[in-house]
Amino acid sequence: MLQERIEGKWIETFASVFKLCRVESGTVVAILSETQSRPVNVQLTELALHQLGAKAFHLIIPTPTQTTNIPIRSTGASVVLQGIKPVVEALSNSELVVDVTVEGLLHAPEVSAVLKNGARILMVSNEHPDTLERLLPDPELTIKVKLGLKKLKSAKKMSVTSQAGTDLNIDVTDATPGAAWGYADRPGLMSHWPGGLCLCFPQEKNCQWHTGSCPRGCQFNFQTLYRNHR
After folding, report:
1. Domains of the chain by start residue, with CATH
2. pTM, rounded to two decimals
3. Is the distance from CB of 123 to CB of 17 less than 8 angstroms?
4. In which region does residue 188 sit, left (phi positive, over 0), alpha (psi from -120 to 50) or beta (all else)?
5. Share of the chain above pLDDT 70, in %
6. Does the pLDDT at position 148 exceed 70?
7. Are 172 and 207 in contact (CB under 8 A)?
8. How far apart are CA 54 and CA 127, in angstroms?
9. Tens digit of pLDDT for each residue in 27-50?
10. Integer distance in angstroms from the first to the last C-alpha of the chain?
11. Vertex 142, ends 137 and 145: CA angle to 5°?
12. HSE of 7 in the Cβ direction (CA atoms, 13 Å)?
């Protein structure tokens, strides 16, 4: 595995993504991490924000006790905020939250409260900086993602078949569509890096194949999360 140390090129990598998030001199940015966050990503975030002249501050929370016996990383179902009101309020009063927690806040129940005042959130997946460097957001890909989202909104059915016998059919009528292009550039928007995908959340009764529930018991309203993805 590559060494986890500060590299100048990775400071530039993080800075380039933060620029896509409209970070500039004076932008107030909260760096949210936990005690088990990957230190190199927390440090790169701070250095890149400093390079851009942002007014950054750290919020570090002790990693909560494990509630599952399987390893989980970058699921987006973090419980690290634990409903702590002062923390949620500090995040919601920031312009941008850089989320470098282990699992990420994508499906955390507190996200709607963080976004309500116009804060935007960028979830940085808990990966080695080399991986993040290779999977940089691409503004040209954003165009394709938005086009895919438009098509998904008008779709009625999704089918997946294969020579191995896969035969999955999902009614996506009235499903909640969403998309992520890897950067958060609008107030009230959450995105994640790496990004570049379209997805939808169909009514459970419309899916003819079910895998079970999330081990974290996600409670977040996906309609709220993706309301600004247009």
Report:
1. 8-134 (3.40.50.2300), 139-179+197-225 (no CATH)
2. 0.83
3. no
4. left
5. 86
6. yes
7. no
8. 24
9. 999 999 999 999 999 999 999 999
10. 38
11. 120
12. 13
